[in-house]
């Protein structure tokens, strides 16, 4: 048995390596041109329009926040109507995450997918722009003194170009006010000492944090927009108004979707606002509608441009060469600023620069008769602004499409390694089910059906539907098996399973297509009734802490100690939840306020927020102690406590999962607990022996995924929940934050994994002859499932690598699959094996 | 054996279609008898299940036609609710006629056969008043059955707070499509039969009836359910077609599945 488990382990490691290799080949770095931009065929093509630049980036400033009638930025509207500001809706290229967006905004290039991941791994240094050409670098080389205040992503991108900095971290999402005050506090000094700088970059994060926490309609949103408006007012009155050669740009780096997240490619996420403010704009004023505009469902306000169009525009306005990798097109509305003969030069420089990029990409404009070559011919012969614009747009489309090249060796090697291990798994699977062919075959059909869904982009986007479909089919089969076995009450348990599963499905919106419609879901009802949500959370906390004590039927002293410790743990968790609730200004019931004050008094702090870090640390410590004590008790009196070993651990760990879950998802654990009972009872009624083990395993796989999607997750990066990633962390640490993020997003699956151990070893306590044999069977089925799914996914990604959605749908799915597979290896297999060995 | 010999001519009379010779040479209840003996050997309580005569009459040709008319005549893609409710009368009418046809083509239970020999000889006969009464009664039960079916649809994932009308109409359609024929063939209460219908139903539900795949009414129900189940698949796909709206694909799946199920059952019973 040891040899077989060791084989499984080796295969798992091989597959993990294979997957990582595949990912390495699939997400390569992009080829970028080295060196600086240059002027083409002309030594001084531009005529400098501005001497001073103020760039104010407001994270997640969606177009409607600035321009619609819902917007509170009345000063901005006033400026637009006065003609001193130009508003645009700027398309933000997905992935709509800050780091890749900043790269795009500064270099003018389209992002590469890896940037999205590196955005989360903050400590990584491979994302610096180093030598890559950008307007920040060009301005620096031009001798501009650039000051930077706000999001420290900028500092990571440009470690050496800023003369004065004050960075804020973008990851403490619960903080709405301080991040922004830390930026604004520098303003007055800079305004008073304008001779000390030429360019100033401000990056405000508060608005994005509000979005993550409460969505675009959060009560904090209006206040924050007002705050931003006041800053624009201050900048205008004290800088722009005093100097016609100053340009102020206010922009969002990306937008947000209807639930306040971003990362994907929906209209809300990609429509960022962009506003140019300058006295000079009065001269070039186009006929623009009067702000604010009525609400537009597609978030289109004023003219639509690309965010990267900012790059050549800045180059021309400040007179420096257009950065080398730029795909942006000069914004037409600024052409009238230049003298008639100079304005054509601006466009020509833009065209020459793009042509170099095209030639590097292997496209010869002089030959061939593609639309692009024709446009070039037209542009280079006629040299009219309209023909050059035609060419620039064509070139932009062409270049944005061909962005990266794959490392095929890594892809093939990774796929081969994974597939070889998969074949061994399959052989083990066939041997395992040799006596039970029909069951094994039915499972295989299910596995293949699921895996085949990876070939449809919508089925990846709506994966929760696939799982729901597989889940109810399995429930129906289980129903039939139970009725056949003829035990009493099988109709009840079957209906209960269906009912609970339906509740699970009704909890949250999942999927990417219908996610944003205002569906009435149980979760949104809880969000509306804050005290109901809090009540349910507290109930769940104490339910699980009392479940721990109920299980250990032992001597009174042990029971008392066990009761006290788990009650203490549950109470800490409950107080943390109350504090978080209080801190988020969600109406905490009055009778709980004395508790908050009591905690604050004891911790000697003034705000509930300051209590949280020590409270979390206390919680983690208590949790560690309780778990260690439970394991120790088991070593001392193995027989007495074996019966509840797994369920005690499960219930204790669930309190951690509750702490890491958002309030609306906490009651899911109660449903999952009931579901565990109902499914467990049904399975033990209907089947026994190997089929029971395999049924439990298959249900575990199904419920893991179902619970994952029921908590509102999807296969898009935008639904990664970061709100609980910093619980109790006072300094940013990649590992601790990563683990906390993982736990808060995979809470449901973790619960189900531990539950399956309970079902395998406690419900069938007397049947278990060889605990490792049971574990081996379970693992073979799971690895077979992941092997099939993995091969299908990799083949799908490989064969669809030129698909339109490869970056927005398939690539995030690869990352999610990686985390699922890692969950399977690390938690389900290794951790499970350790627990079973301890049992 | 005598009863079998007596029955053969009756079959010949009934079936006046192309496949007469084949059917006539194979005694219709032969397979049933062997099946019975099989079940007896496996299971102590043998279950006799009513069977349909092998005739093309019992193939529900109206179903595909009706499904086609849902699109062509009732324009289900523009307004599902109105199409489904307006077509309901026609569906019920069709299904009642179909039910009456089924009534005439049910083979009698062994006990009944002996008592009603004279009547049998007279077949094909016109429907009797008792038949009409039972069909009316079955329609009532079918209507009642829509409620649990509606709940089952919701449990199986139909939207709960919205589109309730659509879901309920879907339940009504499915109910008349598959539940009514089931009620006609397997009866809900039958004093004459030696086997309680309730046992028949529970045996059917768990596939414990021997040769269940040779029971067209049953395979029709299975087909309808499986079709509805498969009908959910196209909804999430991003083809943006108007027929992808709830519950058109499920309805089409139900109709298609029921028809295919019935035909497969008929074919299986010929073998």
UniProtKB/TrEMBL annotation, chain A:
Give the protein's biological function. Answer: Ethanolamine phosphate transferase involved in glycosylphosphatidylinositol-anchor biosynthesis. Transfers ethanolamine phosphate to the GPI second mannose.
Name the UniProt record assigns to this protein: GPI ethanolamine phosphate transferase 2
Gene Ontology process terms (BP) = GPI anchor biosynthetic process
**Thylakoid among the record's keywords?**
no
Spans traversing the lipid bilayer = 411-433, 440-460, 466-483, 612-629, 690-712, 732-760, 780-802, 814-838
The UniProt entry's GO CC annotations, sorted and at most eight, read: endoplasmic reticulum membrane; plasma membrane
Taking every annotated instance into account, which residue ranges of this chain make up the domain GPI ethanolamine phosphate transferase 2 C-terminal?
A: 404-836
User: Which is one Pfam family of this protein?
Assistant: Phosphodiest
Pathway membership: Glycolipid biosynthesis; glycosylphosphatidylinositol-anchor biosynthesis
Keyword Cell membrane attributed = no
The source's superkingdom equals Eukaryota
Q: What CDD domains does this protein's entry cite?
A: GPI_EPT_2
Keywords in alphabetical order: Endoplasmic reticulum, Glycoprotein, GPI-anchor biosynthesis, Membrane, Transferase, Transmembrane, Transmembrane helix
How is the protein disposed in the membrane?
Multi-pass membrane protein
Subcellular location(s): the record lists:
Endoplasmic reticulum membrane
Similarity comment? Belongs to the PIGG/PIGN/PIGO family. PIGG subfamily.
UniProtKB/TrEMBL annotation, chain B:
Q: Name one GO cellular component term.
A: endoplasmic reticulum membrane
Please list every transmembrane segment annotated in the UniProt record, as residue ranges.
83-103, 132-156, 168-186, 217-237, 243-265
Q: Provide the family line.
A: Belongs to the PIGF family.
Question: Is Transmembrane helix a UniProt keyword of this protein?
Answer: yes
Query: Sorted alphabetically, which Pfam families does this protein's record hold?
Result: PIG-F
User: What GO biological process term is on the record, naming one?
Assistant: GPI anchor biosynthetic process
Q: In which pathway does it act?
A: Glycolipid biosynthesis; glycosylphosphatidylinositol-anchor biosynthesis
Q: Which compartment or compartments is the protein found in?
A: Endoplasmic reticulum membrane
Where are the annotated segments for Disordered? Answer: 22-46
UniProt KW keywords: Endoplasmic reticulum, GPI-anchor biosynthesis, Membrane, Transmembrane, Transmembrane helix
User: What is the designated name of this protein?
Assistant: Glycosylphosphatidylinositol anchor biosynthesis protein 11
Bias type Polar residues, positions: 28-46
The UniProt entry lists membrane topology as: Multi-pass membrane protein
